[in-house]
Amino acid sequence: MTRDKNLEIGRLQKEIGDHIGVGADSLMFNYVEKDGEATKLYLITLNPRHNQSFLFHATEGSDKGEALREMLEYVRTYKERTSSYTVQWSARGENVLNTSYFRAKNVLEALDKLFYDRDPNSITVFSVILNPIS
Fold this sequence. Notes:
The chain has 2 domains: 1-81, Double Stranded RNA Binding Domain (2-Layer Sandwich), CATH 3.30.160; 83-134. It has helices at 5-20, 64-81, 107-115, and strands at residues 27-34, 38-47, 52-61, 83-91, 98-104, 123-130. It contains 3 helices and 6 strands. The chain starts with a helix and ends with a strand.
C-alpha cells in the first residue's frame, strides 16, 4: 500500500494547528523550495481582528513532510524554549493602536516576526514588553 503524501501533509498541518490552538482559517503554510535541495516552511498566523499576518516560525527540511515534522516538533516545545512578548504597534496612516503577542527567543526575533514579509516603514512600533513568566 502506498502512502498518500497529501494525506500526511494534511494530518501534520492539522496537528500543528491543534497544538497552537488556532483553526485552519488562521494559519497559512508557506513552502519555499531552495535550489531543489531543501524546502523552507514559513508558518504564518492570520489575525482577522486587525487584518494582518505574522510569522509564527520557520523550519527547513528535505521536503514538505520533513519541514512539517520539524515544525510539529517546534510547536510541541516552543513554550518551554521561548519568552512571551507583547508588541503595541500601528499601521501607517491608521490611528488605531494594535496589540499583538509573540513567542520568541529575544526582542529582535519578536520584531522579526512582526515585520515578516512587509515593508518596515508600514508599521510603527510603540512598545515591546517581555511578559512575566506565568
